[in-house]
Amino acid sequence: MRVLGLDIGDRRVGVAVSDETGTIATPHGVHTRRSAPEDVAQLAQLARQLGAVAIVAGLPLNMDGTEGQQARKTREFAEAVAEGSGLPLHYVDERLTSVEADRAMVEGGLSRRRRRGHRDALSAVLLLQEWLGSQRMGTS
Length: 140
Prior knowledge:
Shape: globular
Number of helices: 4
CATH architecture: 2-Layer Sandwich
Number of domains: 1
Structural class: alpha/beta
Largest sheet: 5 strands, mixed
CATH topology: Nucleotidyltransferase, domain 5
Helix content: 40-55%
Mean pLDDT: 88
Distance between the termini: 16 Å
Radius of gyration: 14 Å
């Protein structure tokens, strides 16, 4: 059960993938956005190439839990990728994943410059791992 995790931003999309058992999420890199149709096609193709059975996207909710403009843009993009790949789509609240990713990289001793290049992929790992854990616990 391989699952693709996406941390969708305006300039970059962090990508993570689970192992075949659906237990562990690992970084798969960062996709630099060019145009929506091209980005959707490339990510949908990646999902198919990896043999993913589902897509998990981080949903950037406001701190009060409501959806703002960024959440609407994220939903639109994620739905297009899911439609293009023919895979089911799930969302995970990603409110603090970037902060958590930064904290982990600082603790790991990465320089500020190296953190910039890894933040999106690590955020995708964190949100995918959260979703995988919720599936094992039966809470999603």
